[in-house]
Design a protein that fits this description.
This protein is an alpha/beta fold and about 220 residues long. Helix content is about 45%, strand content about 15%. It is built from 8 helices and 6 strands. β3 and β4 form a beta hairpin. The protein is globular, with a radius of gyration of 19 Å.
């Protein structure tokens, strides 16, 4: 077992698939209990970065996740099963993707480009369309997740469909919050605010990540 403290940058940067097992419950986080508190934490750290740009800022702790390595053939994209933490990891993907879309809309291109590889695997690593996603949810949530994470900015949430699905509503929530926060001090401050919040979501959030090694198939010994 390997245990490390990692930022979203470290968790999501490399080409990989984090797969939710089919037996796990669907996505259940909501605005009141999880999305809004998470966004408030992001904004609180981003405001500190803006107000004290030359200070060292302590990261915000998001909790722990447990992953199990999946044995793959050499050359195939890395895959891990999410044993615990699927709600947290899925929400982070929705937040990052929504923020990426809003950064593009205000032409904050360098921050947007730094976030993009955290939500999309590069095409050369993808054998199937769904391989582009870093997190792949259980069957119940796949249609909504595929629709919202695959939507091209600027996102028309009415056209995406799946109205009322929590994944779509989470993405919409983070998009609206990001748009409002980025524009708080007028157009002249947008680029500075974009760089601050991008730094926070990539580097100043932390999780404890436990990685379990693949389960080995017991050897069969013949009787003599």
């Amino acid at each position: 077992m390997e245990t490390q403290v990692r930022s979203p940058q470290m968790v999501f940067m490399q080409p990989q698939r984090l797969v939710v097992p089919l037996f796990q419950r669907p996505y259940v986080w909501n605005e009141e209990n999880q999305w809004e508190p998470l966004w408030n934490d992001v904004v609180r750290v981003a405001d500190r970065v803006l107000n004290q740009p030359f200070e060292k800022h302590h990261p915000h702790f998001l909790g722990a996740v447990v992953l199990q390595q999946v044995q793959k053939q050499t050359g195939q994209m890395q895959e891990r099963t999410i044993i615990d933490g699927q709600q947290r990891l899925t929400t982070l993907q929705l937040l990052l993707d929504a923020l990426h879309a809003e950064l593009l809309s205000v032409q904050a291109l360098p921050p947007a480009m730094r976030i993009e590889p955290l939500v999309t695997n590069a095409e050369p690593f993808c054998q199937r369309p769904e391989d582009r996603f870093k997190v792949w949810p259980t069957n119940r949530d796949r249609p909504a997740f595929n629709a919202i994470m695959g939507a091209k900015p600027p996102i028309d949430y009415n056209a995406v469909g799946h109205r009322g699905e929590r994944m779509v509503e989470a993405h919409r929530f983070f998009s609206e919050q990001a748009r409002e926060w980025l524009s708080l001090n007028g157009p002249e401050a947008i680029q500075l605010r974009a760089a601050a919040i991008e730094t926070v979501v990539r580097e100043l959030m932390q999780m404890v990540v436990l990685i379990l090694q693949p389960t080995r198939t017991p050897r069969k010994f013949s009787r003599r």
